[in-house]
Design goal:
Elements (H helix, E strand, L loop, with lengths): L3 H18 L3 H15 L6 H8 L5 H22 L6 H77 L5 H59 L4 H80 L7 H12 L13
């Protein structure tokens, strides 16, 4: 670390000097390439150039680096074919350049293959996660349809009970309040399920975008790998760093998937609990409606009997019973208003 830090400081100082001397971006990148390669003995790469200069887009250092290597190869070829050199020296120099170029190409191809394998693994992981989330979405939609069917059946039953109801005004108001509460709870659950579906859709979009971004990075990595000629030690270090990062991302993705599965299980338990509460309330209302219907039938029977007694001549009634019968016969039956049931 003590040897690297002063060199980085010198490189930064030289680059600042070059920025003031060469205002044009392409000329500045070309001078930085020459500085790194000839003065400091560092093989320039597109990423390293962009990190040092921070000008233009990523395509600019890539193009300048390609021109630099092409110009360097051209100059080297002319120097090797110089007429003053002996034929044996020219042949040896040509073989040396060919060997260097072959090794550099092999290193670049190995780096490209490693990058391709890594990106393919990331893509496969993303596709697996998308398939898992799609299955979870299908199961959630099925549960939503079942719950909606049960809710519609409950609403139809409530409507039928309201048609036969003939209780007093206070009982009718209380039952309407209970039905309104059930409908409000149903709407709240519907809103929660709609939000859950939207969250699943957003997560699927993110995963698709991540897969497309990985594909784009793969293509960019292939182009950069064809242009980069790095030393063997630097390539090994970068591959090890990429491997550690990929392992960390895989661990994080696994933990995230596990947390999402636990959240979905908890939500399913809550929905089942709420469905049980709804069934209990519906059963209580059904019992109350049955009791009220029996009471109304009894009142109607009494009213009919009283009317028949009034119609039969010679029937003897006490004044109190006659007044009671007349009150019952004269009292109209009040039928509760039908309540709009929201689907």
């Amino acid at each position: 670390m003590s040897d690297v830090a002063p060199e980085e400081v010198r490189i930064s100082a030289e680059i600042e000097r070059l920025k003031a001397e060469f205002p044009k971006t392409r000329e500045l990148y070309r001078e930085v390439c020459a500085l790194l390669f000839f003065r400091f003995g560092i093989t320039p790469t597109a990423n390293r150039l962009y990190q040092l200069v921070h000008r233009g887009s990523m395509g600019t250092p890539t193009a300048v680096l390609s021109e630099f290597w092409a110009e360097l190869r051209e100059k080297s070829r002319v120097r090797i074919e110089h007429a003053d050199l002996p034929e044996e020296l020219q042949g040896a120099a040509g073989e040396l350049v060919a060997a260097l170029w072959t090794r550099a190409t092999a290193a670049a191809q190995a780096s490209l293959e490693a990058l391709r394998v890594e990106v393919e693994a990331v893509r496969h992981e993303a596709e697996t996660r998308v398939a898992t989330l799609q299955n979870d979405l299908v199961r959630t939609e099925t549960a939503l349809e079942q719950r909606t069917t049960a809710l519609l059946a409950a609403q139809v039953r409530i409507h039928e009970l309201e048609q036969v109801q003939a209780a007093g005004e206070a009982t009718r108001v209380a039952l309407e309040g209970q039905v309104a509460g059930l409908q409000q709870e149903g709407r709240e659950r519907d809103a929660a399920l709609v939000q859950a579906r939207a969250d699943f859709a957003a997560e699927l979009d993110k995963l698709r975008a991540g897969a497309e971004l990985a594909e784009t990075r793969l293509q960019a990595s292939e182009k950069r790998a064809l242009l980069e000629i790095e030393r063997e030690r630097a390539t090994s270090t970068r591959l090890q760093r990429d491997l550690d990062a990929a392992t960390k991302r895989a661990t994080q993705a696994e933990e995230s998937a596990r947390a999402e599965a636990q959240a979905l299980q908890a939500q399913l338990g809550d929905l089942r609990h709420q469905a049980g509460m709804l069934e209990g309330r519906l059963e209580a209302q059904r019992i109350a409606h049955a009791a009220q219907t029996q009471e109304v039938e009894a009142l109607r029977t009494k009213a009919t009997a009283a009317a028949a007694a009034n119609a039969v001549p010679g029937t003897r009634r006490t004044p109190r019973r006659a007044a009671r019968s007349a009150e019952v016969a004269a009292k109209p039956l009040r039928v509760p208003r039908k309540k709009a049931v929201q689907n």
